[in-house]
Amino acid sequence: MTAARALVALATLLPFAAGAFGPAVAAAHVLKVTWQPARPHVGDIGWVSVQGAPDDATLEGSVGGHPLRFFPYAGGHAAVVGFDLETKPGSHTWRLAVLRPGQEPQTAQGRIHVQRRDFPVQRLSVPRPMVDLDPETERRAVTEAERLRTLYRMVTPERLWRGRFTRPVGGTEPGSGFGARRIINGQPRSPHAGIDFAAPRGTPVVATNDARVALVADYFFPGRLVVLDHGLGLYTLYFHLDDARVVEGERVSRGQPIGAVGATGRSTGPHLHFGAQVGAARIDPATLLELTVRD
What we know:
CATH superfamily of the largest domain: Glucose Permease (Domain IIA)
C-alpha cells in the first residue's frame, strides 16, 4: 500500500471526562493518524499508524465499533484493520485513546469511508449429501464452525509476522471467488470468505508469513485444514488440503511448506481455499498479499 493511497489526519488529543478533582492532565498532543488505503473497500485489510503519542503511552482504539490492536511501530504505533465482507458501505467512526500512568485518558476520533464492492454470483453443483445434511452431520458442521469463530476471537498479544506476505502456492494466477454469493444446487448459501487457487493435487502449500500453527483438523466443509496465527488477531486459513505437514503449536516461517493441495471436504476438485481473518472480520486475502509495511 503506497503513500498515494494513504489518508492522513491530524487529531488533537482531548481529556476524557477529566473532572475538577481528577489528576492533572498533560498538555494536549497532536497525533498524526495515517490510514492505508485511504478509502478502503468492503473486504479490505487496512493499516492505521499513529505518530505523536508520548513515549510512555499505551494506545487503544476502535473503528466501526471493532477493536484495534496497536503495537509499537516505526517510532509510533500501528494496527491492522479488517473490513468484513459484509461491512455496510459508508462512513465509519474511528476512536483512539492514549493511556498514560497517573493521568486521565486522552481521546481523538475521526471518520473513514468504506467503499461499496460488488461481488459476483457463483452457481455450483455438488453431491446432495454435501448440501442437504442429515441431523448428525449438521450438528457436526455447526460445532466446527463455532470452533473456528472462537479461535478467531483469540488474540496473541504480539506480532509474529514480518515484511510482506507471500502466495500460498506457486504460480502467478490470482486467486478468485472472494465474496461470491454462492448458489449451491439452486439454494443461496453464505458468501465465499476466501480465494481459490486451482492447482493439481499434491501441489505444495506454504505459510504466507511467520506464524504459530493454531489449528490442524479435519472438518466437514473445509476438509483437512491448517490455521496460522500471525499475532494481534490476524489469521490465515488453508482449506481442502490433501495432507498437513505441521502440528499445532509449531512455529513456521514464511515460505515453509505446511501441506499440499487436495480436494477434501466440500470441494468440486483439487484447489486451495485461502482465507484471512482479522478477528471476526473476513477479509480478502488478496489485499493481505498487497500489504507493505516497514520492519
